[in-house]
Amino acid sequence: MIKRNGQPRQGVAPPSLKRMSDAEHAAYFEAFGVIKSDYQALCLIGDKLREVEANARGLGSVESQAQSGPAELPASAGGRSPWEVCASLMRLNNNEVVLCKRVCEHGLEYAVIDEASAASAYAKARGPLDVLRTGDNPRQVLRDYLRSESETLQLMVNDITANVRLVIAERFPKQDLRRVVNEITRMCKKVARLGFSETVTDAAIQTQKHDGSVHV
Amino acid sequence: MSGNNEAVNTAPQAPAPTLPDSERLAYSIEEAAQLLGVHYFSVYRMIQRGKLRPCRVLRGKLLVPRSELLKLLKTE
Predict the structure, then answer these.
(1) Of the four, A16, A18, A214, B31, which is 20 to 30 A from A94 by CA?
(2) CB distance from B45 to chain A under 8 Å?
(3) Verdict on whether the full-model pTM lies above 0.90
């Protein structure tokens, strides 16, 4: 069993590593040492997104939450009304992803927004708000957001495994260490998997209809 | 890419968004995040959404061209 930091659980050799040669062991620990912080970030982001996914059933309470104590984001361009924060979905250092709503001509509009620090170079050039998804149905907005984040996680996994291949090629030239690359790739894919599906979300919505619980 | 957690979100202190003078043609995702002052997952997201066009080098590893960062930081 491999722990989340990539090290074998004490006293229990991981089955995948047991079958590896000494060279593969060395390559595994060398490569994992390089991508360890990326792997941990992947775990963290994956966990947060799975939490959002699990809490989707609370979407019915979005409106009441916003009315009870809205935090306003800076007004968007074009003089439209400011977004009201309904729920914080994920915070990554200075970036926070929030579910918002505002009133527009045709009723309520919902959005998932990535808010950057106002002091950042990006915010100074582009504004602090990066609208990721919009729509009039909060469930659909959240569903689309999660699907998109799942793809972004996959991109991150691909980049991490590219880094693993690079490290192994540089430090262990002319050795066949594909099993090591495959093992680390498998670990990354596992923690990046959201398990998001129409069925899961629809089931969550059905649950929300019955219990009216507040989770977001 | 190691050390991403420690290195993220150091927003540049310059009054106007710009990049430091450099001979660099491209930056790693982590470096791009530092220069933009955002979390590096946001940089992956920008790539995924087509706001940043990366180049792939060295066994598929992503790099962000300096020209792409300059384009993104150009105020409109």
Answers:
(1) A214
(2) yes
(3) no
